[in-house]
Amino acid sequence: MTIRKAVLEDLDEILAIYEHAREQMRLSGNPSQWGTGNPPVEVVKNDIRTGNSYVLTENDTICGVFALVFGEEPTYAQIEDGAWQNDAPYATIHRVAGSGARKGILRHCLSFCEAQIPNIRVDTHADNHIMQHLLEASGYVRCGIIHVADKTPRIAYQKTVPE
Questions:
Q1: Looking at the predicted structure, is the pLDDT value of residue 136 above 80?
Q2: Cα–Cα distance between 162 and 12 in angstroms, integer?
Q3: pLDDT tens digits for 36-66?
Q4: Which of 53, 60, 83, 136 is deepest in the core (most CB within 10 A)?
Q5: Can you spell out the DSSP letters for 87-117?
Q6: How large is the C-alpha radius of gyration of the chain?
Q7: What CATH code is carried by the domain that includes residue 97?
Q8: Range of the domain at 43
Q9: Do 146 and 123 form a contact (C-beta atoms < 8 A)?
Q10: Per-residue pLDDT tens for 142-160?
Q11: How far is CA 150 from CA 33, 42, 55, 154, in A?
C-alpha cells in the first residue's frame, strides 16, 4: 500500500470513502460521530489545499484517506479527566476512513504518521469502539476527554514514539 498527498482530482473518491465510513459507523452502533454530513466537503477540500490530506492507494485505487495536521489543535487546549503525556510539538490525525476494499488502513496510517513526527494525538467518539480498540492495540494511551468544535466530547489519545 502506498501513501501520497491527496489532490483535488481525488475528491470524488475521497467523498465516496467518507460516505462508506459513515454507513459503517452507523451499522456498528456509532451513528452520531460523523452523522450524515461529516466531514463537510469544504473541510475535505481545505485538507487537500493545505497539504494535510493523504490517501492510501493500492494498484492506483484509493482505499483510504486521513488528515495529518502539524501544530496545535485548538480543541486539544483543554482536556478533562486526565492530561496529555507531554507538551512537546505534535501532529494530530483526523478523518481516518477506508473504502472497505482493504484491511489495515488505520495501521498503515499510524505507521506513516509516526514516521513523520514522534508525538501524535488523535481523538474518537465514545461509541467508536473499533477505533478505540485499534488505537490502544497500537500503543496509543487514553489521556482524557476533549470537546470538538461542536462541543461534543471525544476520547483523546496520544502516542510518543521513541526517536
A1: yes
A2: 37
A3: 888 999 999 999 999 999 999 999 999 999 9
A4: 53
A5: -S--EEEEEEEE-SSSS-HHHHHHHHHHHH-
A6: 15
A7: 3.40.630.30
A8: 2-160
A9: yes
A10: 999 999 988 999 999 999 9
A11: 11, 16, 26, 11
